[in-house]
Amino acid sequence: MKLPVAFLAVFASIVATIDATVYFKEQFQDGDGWKSRWLESKHKSDYGQWKLSAGKFYGDAEADKGVQTSQDARFYAMSARFEPFSNEGKPLVIQFTVKHEQKIDCGGGYVKIFPSTLDQSDMHGDSQYYIMFGPDICGYSTKKVHVILNYKGQNHLIKKDIKCKDDELTHLYTLILNPDQTYEVKINNEKVESGSLEEDWDILPPKKIKDPEAKKPSDWDDRAKIDDPSDTKPEDWDKPETIPDPDAKKPDDWDEDMDGEWEAAMITNPEYKVKSGTIFDNFLIADDVKEAEEFGKETWGVTKEPEKKMKDEQEDMERKLREEEEKSKKKDAEGDEEEEEEEDEEDGEEDNEEQDDETEEDAGTEEDGDVTQKDEL
């Protein structure tokens, strides 16, 4: 039986829609409703607190709201549960946006996919997970995208170095794991890395092993790296977390023979700051690459340019305020200099008047002396 073309088109459309499965999606667009879906871990009492915010600059005040870290120098742990699933024979796509608007010095912006057996209230850094994915930044040396896969209870790190974005804007991170054992990492809907699981992770036993009979030459240098003799420390190099108390003084009765060498107590370095402000949003776990790409365009793709424009305008305003402040300070300084010069001139005139008075007095005294001397003669 020959079916109408229109019917076939509708049927094909329905099949395509059913074939694509979204396992999890979160955009934080129902006010405080997210608090009923996300559970903060109680494993540690000092985990940082989350808040709903679009940040200091954004493309859309409502659409760009996500969960934001709100306390400096803290670890954060929060999870949302979804139904267990199998994507056998289909891709697995993990996608989300993250914004480090605070000019982050050191911190991770990654997510983890856990087993359904996870005790969410006791989740912590050593809890077993299946996949860990996202940017990690710490100082100048670490600015990379983590892709860690768990296989038979062991975590395996990707062997490639994937550079992450380190500015203050929102960025879209996507991991695609294909059923043919290949993968792709995208940032802002553009591919930045791809390959095979077998080649880029040490998941399977190696095809070749080291020759057990081989011996290291006597002059072999074991150092994989050496310090660059021409390298210099940047002026804004990360400061240590603690420093000796600059106000501490050695007690007068300190006896080094009895008490040992005196050292100042360590205090928190005021220049060491692990700053909060990271915003997570637009989570998607699905089995369709096209679905994830379209979702990225509808969310991050729509607000990225307005967000950058707002940020640029804020920076321009801040720059103008700084310039005005510098001009004001300069003007005040010049005014102070003029006042000092006027005071110096007045002081000089007074000194000259006093000197003139002293000269006249001295002259009168000399004349009186002469008269007296003449009288004696």
TrEMBL record:
Which one GO biological process term can you cite for this protein? Answer: protein folding
Annotated GO MF terms: calcium ion binding; carbohydrate binding; unfolded protein binding
Q: Identify the main location.
A: other
> InterPro entries from the xrefs?
Calret/calnex, Calret/calnex_CS, Calreticulin, Calreticulin/calnexin_P_dom_sf, ConA-like_dom_sf
Q: Which PANTHER family match?
A: CALRETICULIN AND CALNEXIN, CALRETICULIN-3
Q: Which cellular compartments is it found in?
A: Cell surface; Cytoplasmic vesicle, Secretory vesicle, Cortical granule; Endoplasmic reticulum lumen; Sarcoplasmic reticulum lumen
Name this polypeptide is given: Calreticulin
Disulfide bond annotation, renumbered to this chain: 106-138
Q: Which UniProt keywords apply?
A: Calcium, Chaperone, Disulfide bond, Endoplasmic reticulum, Lectin, Metal-binding, Repeat, Signal, Zinc
Single GO cellular component term: sarcoplasmic reticulum lumen
Give the organism the record lists.
Answer: Seriola lalandi dorsalis
Biased region (Basic and acidic residues) positions are 208-252, 304-333
The entry's family comment says:
Belongs to the calreticulin family.
- Record field: compositional bias (Acidic residues): 334-370
Provide the residue span(s) of the region labelled Disordered: 196-259, 295-377
List the signal peptide residues. 1-20
Q: Which domain of life is it from?
A: Eukaryota
- Which residue windows are transmembrane per the record? none
